[in-house]
Each structure stands twice: as structure tokens, then as C-alpha cells.
Amino acid sequence: WRPSPSSGLLSPCSASSSSTTSTSGPSARTQLSRWTGRSWACSQPTAPPRLGHLRPRRQPAQLPPRRPAALGNAALHHRRSGQRSPRLHLQLPQLPQGPRVRPYHGHFRRWYLQRRRRLLAPSACQGAAAYVRASVPSLRIQLQPPQGRMRPAPAASPHRRLTFDTTTTPVLGVDPGCLAVGFPEVPFVRAIDDAMDFLLVRNLLPLSWWKLVRQLGLGYERKMAVAWRDIDRFIGDTIAKRREAVKATGGIEDSADLLSSYIDDDDGDAGSGTVVDVFLRDTTMNLMIAGRDTTGSALTWFFYLLTRNPGVVSKILAELDTIKTTTTTTLDGMVTFDPDELGRLVYLHAALCESLRLYPPVPFEHKGVVAAEALPSGHEVRPGDKILVSLYAMGRMEAVWGMDCREFRPERWIGEDGKPRYVPSYKFASFNAGPRTCLGKDMAFVQLKAVAAAVVRNFEVEAVPGHVVQPKISIVLHMKNGFTARIKRRQVMN
Ligand code: HEM
User: Fold this and answer.
1) Which domain, by its residues, includes 113?
2) 42 annotated as ligand-binding
3) What ipTM score was computed for the predicted complex, to two decimals?
4) Which of 114, 158, 209, 391 has the most CB within a 10 Å radius?
């Protein structure tokens, strides 16, 4: 399927008609209907899409795609009368709004503090960048084949492991060691993976059904309880250790992990009771879930796109060559870059944005309506309605991105003056827009650039012919069959 040039609606096209640079993958509409079940809203302009037996019982709210600002309407509206749907609260009980922290009266204030404080501080990004830089030699051990031969490797796996380590370290101050030689199974990671899978199962079942199964403690709900117990234990122990450390040193340094900084804030006003610990647990879990898979997914799709667009790789290498003076070469020849210098690279930034546009790690936004209201776009919504905005679809619409919307073309992000082109967040919505914008966007870009630059400069990545790459039905846009690639050390003439 591809968006029709005249209407912006999706129409069928043969897979073989795609050009070498255009992207593959199912249509936005097909993917949306698979993901959303009965209740949905879409960003198509006129007639509701044909969803067959999944057709909703009543007309859903629709957002006209020709005006990306419509997303802004929904996002701002969300501040007044919408929120994450109650069902989503139950599915994602670790989020700060969830029932697990509801008894804590001050949590909204703390949520506000969380937004403003350390996550946005440059020290948080620097901590993440330093960790990524230090991890590059581990990537070599995992990716480099013996005797320089190319070997197939499930590229998504190193990305997810790397981003788990690079998220856990700045958030909890603990290196879980996922990238250690041999890719060991880490129980805490296993528990989070299980919990995320079970959350998706809940999403697919009727509300009453999974609540009953939870009450009876059967099947996956029993496993879910075990997963949460393991997660709680690990984070509880970490909180206790950090609390001791903060007490012993009488304060924290600028470069401290986020958990220590929250403890430092809390001890100043709220003490260290159980409720505060619950808040700390839920807040740090929120950050781990929000940061890990999104960045891992972004990297996997980015390298997949690079394998299909060698011209882009050459341009990234040429740009990396311009910062030779601040690069470091390790004893075994691995080149790493200064994160500050990487932050200045326009083409690398553009290539990452382009990849995030085509493959947004969070493929759809889900809002619940709590009060009847007319959206600024004229659409009336009622309590209980759900608004789903497909970010995946928005990134592939001619009406929004032009005729070449399915092409991977980083140049669209660069102005004629060679500087980054301004693109409003209501158009490029991969990090959401409005009051619930991603808090980790800067940190994500620092991590993405550090990994992308290190891998592109040190390795050649080639897709294994015949391996089918498809998005997987999930809360995060993973690859259904993973991404199997051949990897070898890059020989660069100096
Ligand atoms: C490429 C990487 C990332 C992408 C595409 C991304 C995308 C998003 C999106 C779409 C949302 C809105 C979710 C919703 O409200 O339904 C969000 C929220 C959030 N993200 Fe990210 N994210 C990324 C990385 C990170 C990282 C590294 C962190 C921090 C470690 C982070 C922290 C958060 C937090 C705390 C929220 C909740 C904000 C709020 O509700 O106030 N994200 N992100």
C-alpha cells in the first residue's frame, strides 16, 4: 500500500514497485488496524478506513492529515479533558499516573518535578553519552567476527542490550552488564521483557477477562506477578543502596544518576517512607521502560535503512571525517567520538530524524477522553472515546511530507543554508507533541548519535539477502523476525 498522491488515502501498490531508496513495510492502515482492535481513530481525511470485522461500533474521532496541527489539537485537548485512558493505566501500572502510586497525594507535584529536573539537565545526557562511549569496545567484542570474516548477527539484540545498559546506568546508577561477553541472561532484564509482553497480552484481551484472570492468578497473570516481584526486588535493593550512599556522602555530585538525584530531592522534604520509595520505584521504572526499547528500536531501524542506502553511509562517513581531531582510537583500533562534536553534525542528525519519521519507535499515541468536548478541529468527543493517532501513518503521508514521503532522504531535514531545517513537533511527532512530549528526547539523540557514529565508522553492516524485515505488533515498533546482518570491521584509509 502507498498513500495516493491526490487524496492522502492509502492505495495498493506492488512490493516490487518500490525504488531502491524507498521503504518497505505494511501500509500504515493495515498496521493500524492490526494493532488497535475495535476502538480507533485515524489520521485519514474522508471516509473511515475499511476495517472489516474490526469496524468500530460508532464513528471514531478523526484527525485531518492535511493539517498536522490537528495532532496539536488532540495533544493540547488532552491537557484539558483527556488523559491516558483508564485502561492504559491498568495496563501500564508502573507509570507515574498508575494505580500503584495513586495513594501518594503528592505524585503530581513530583511528576512535575521529574519533568523539570535532572532528566532535562545536561549532566544526564553527558552521563549517558560517556557510558555509550565507554561501551564501544564491548560492541567490538560482540560484533567483530574472527579473522575479519563477515558473519550474520542478530543486530537488534546488541542494540537492545546496549540501550538497556545505557539507560539503566544513568537512571539507576547500576550497570546490568547486558553487553558482557556471551550476552548473559540478566534476571532483571528478563523480568522487564516478560512484563512488557504480558502488558501487550492485556491490551489484546477484553478488560473484564484479563481482570478476572489477574484476580484468579492464572496463566500469564501469574507470570506477570512473578515478573513484577523480581523487578520490585531489584529496584527496591537499588533504592536502599543509593539512599545509604547519599546519606553517607551527605549529598550528590552533578554527574549522579537520576535515582540518587531524586533521593537527594526527597530527603530534603518528604523523608524516606514507603510511599516515597514506591514513587521512586515507579518513576525509575517509567524511565527505564520509556528509554530502553525506544532507543533500541530506533537504532535497529536506522541500521536497516543504512543497509538499503549506501549513499547515506558514505555521507555520514564524510561528515565524521570532519571531526578527526577529537576522536579517540583504542588499542584495538576502535574509533570513538566526542559526544559534543557529534551533537554538531547536521547530516547524522538528519539521517536519524528521517529514520525516526519512517519508523517511529512508539508507533501510535493513545488518548482517553474524560469529558465531552469539541476538539478545535470540530470533532466532538465523548467520555469513554479513545483517540488513537498513528505516528507510523503520519510519517508516511504525502499530505504531510510530500510526494517522496516513502523515501529515506535525510536531505529533507537540511535547509538551503546547510543548517538543520525547523520541523514542528506536530509534524514530526515521533517524540509526541504537547504537554506529554518525550522527556528523554535529548538523551535519546545523544545515545543514538554516539552508537550510530561508532558503528558506522568501525563496521560495515550488510543485510543478509532474503531476510524479511517487517514491523512487529507491539507497543514499541520492533522487527518481527529481528534484523539479521553481516558485520565486518571497516577498513578506512587515513
Ligand atoms: C528514540 C527514542 C525515544 C522515542 C522515539 C521516544 C518517544 C516518546 C513518546 C512518543 C512519548 C509519549 C508517550 C505517551 O504519552 O503516550 C514519550 C514519553 C516519554 N519518554 Fe520518550 N522516547 C525516546 C527515548 C526516551 C528516553 C531515552 C527517555 C529517558 C530515559 C525517555 C523518557 C520519556 C518519558 C519520561 C516520557 C513520559 C513523558 C510524560 O508523560 O510526561 N524517552 N517518549
Assistant:
1) 85-97+104-143+153-489
2) no
3) 0.98
4) 391
